[in-house]
UniProtKB/TrEMBL annotation:
It comes from Pichia membranifaciens. It is found in: Mitochondrion inner membrane. Essential component of the PAM complex, a complex required for the translocation of transit peptide-containing proteins from the inner membrane into the mitochondrial matrix in an ATP-dependent manner. In the complex, it is required to regulate activity of mtHSP70 (SSC1) via its interaction with PAM18/TIM14. May act by positioning PAM18/TIM14 in juxtaposition to mtHSP70 at the translocon to maximize ATPase stimulation. Keywords: Membrane, Mitochondrion, Mitochondrion inner membrane, Protein transport, Translocation, Transport. One of its GO terms (biological process) is protein import into mitochondrial matrix. This is Mitochondrial import inner membrane translocase subunit TIM16. The lineage of its organism: Eukaryota, Fungi, Dikarya, Ascomycota, Saccharomycotina. The keyword rRNA-binding does not apply. PANTHER family: MITOCHONDRIA ASSOCIATED GRANULOCYTE MACROPHAGE CSF SIGNALING MOLECULE, MITOCHONDRIAL IMPORT INNER MEMBRANE TRANSLOCASE SUBUNIT TIM16. Residues 120-146 are annotated as: Disordered. Residues 136-146 have a biased composition (Polar residues). GO terms for cellular component: TIM23 mitochondrial import inner membrane translocase complex.
Length: 146
């Protein structure tokens, strides 16, 4: 009777371990596929790439710092960061974990703001070059269709 119970426990444990291993393998394979697609330039935007690498998502960072994403400015985020970082210092009985979350949140928001600024510059540069090239091609043809 005891051997039967022991065998049953072993098989149940093996089945649970097998399912967990299979699920972990599927997740790792999916993550690898996404990372390869992102490296090839076919993947999601930079914000999603940051989340995959273990960073905080932008909406989570805004929740941690208690700032609204729609009216987000670096000054507002910096004020909230300074307050939360200071209040959670070890000297004031705060938590290093929460302080780390606040720091990573501010880091994520700064990265996003920098990315958006670079995107806007590239977009405006592209628009200004595109308009100049269009004007030159029409003047070279003297207004005649090609």
């Amino acid at each position: 009777m005891a051997h039967r119970l022991l065998v049953q426990v072993i098989f149940t444990g093996a089945r649970v371990f097998g399912r967990a291993f299979t699920e972990a393998y599927k997740e790792a394979a999916a993550a690898t596929t996404v990372k390869q697609a992102a490296a090839d330039g076919k993947g999601p935007a930079k914000a999603s790439a940051a989340s995959r690498d273990g960073d905080i998502a932008l909406d989570e960072a805004c929740k941690i710092l208690d700032v609204d994403l729609s009216g987000l400015t670096l000054d507002k985020a910096q004020k909230k960061y300074d307050y939360l970082f200071d209040i959670n210092s070890k000297e004031k009985g705060g938590s290093f974990y929460i302080q780390s979350k606040v720091y990573r949140s501010m880091e994520r928001i700064k990265n996003e703001m920098q990315y958006l600024e670079e995107f806007q510059k590239a977009k405006s540069k592209k628009e200004s070059t595109g308009q100049g090239a269009a004007g030159e091609s029409s003047s070279n043809n003297n207004g005649k269709p090609t």
